[in-house]
Design a protein that fits this description.
The chain has 199 residues and is α/β, with parallel strands linked by helices. The chain has 10 helices and 5 strands; from the N terminus they run E-H-E-H-E-H-E-H-E-H-H-H-H-H-H. The chain has a 5-stranded parallel β-sheet, sandwiched between helices. The protein is globular.
Amino acid sequence: MIAVLIVEDEPLIAEDIKQTCLENKIEVAGIAYSLEDAITVLEEKKVDYVLLDIQLGNSNDGLEIGKRLSEEYFIPFSYITSFSDAQIVAQVKLTKPSGYLTKPFRNRDIIIQIELGLDIAARLHKPEMPNLKQINKMVTAELTQREYEMIIELCNGKSNIEIANSLFVSMNTVKTHLKNIFSKLDVKSRTELITKVFS
């Protein structure tokens, strides 16, 4: 089952989104009201997708969380926000979200955001995985066997926690390997990585 993290500092909106998810058979990994809460859930729970408010309290911590999701956790996410001005949108683009939903929204829009975001990786997935030698032909710094194993897990749609469990390593080890892989393949997101591997 898909597990979603809701990062929203307005409890009523957060609960409404949670109910929408549960009614559509989507598990809720947690509700976070701050950056710190979000990091705790990301470290401790299986999270496949994040619905992320930009303004948490009096700060735009949502943008910082979005940056971390792209660069450290490699988990797809959509912003849910009342902001739509050009300056915010320009900052949003830098964090590479899978979607952007402005308030007020319909409950169905939430489900569409999740389905479309998760579908990107699935559509890019191809049945024949290139071998390590083939992938190393496209990079200047060669990937290790362990990094290749991580790529296989990632292309199979596994979360960081699932990869850690599958390969019997810590979350920090997974993050370190993924950072190295992204650097060697010169990509900035899971989607870009999958596209490059199967191109």
